[in-house]
Amino acid sequence: MQEQIHLRARTVRRLNSAEGGRHVKEVCRELGIAEATCYALKFKHGGMQASGVQRLRRIEAGHAKLKRMYAELAMENHALKDLIPKTLSTRRISAPLPRLMSQHGWSQCRACMAIGMSRSMVRYRRRADRDDEVIAPLSS
Question: What residues have CB less than 8 Å from 115, skipping those under 6 apart?
Answer without folding.
Answer: 80, 83, 93, 96, 97, 100
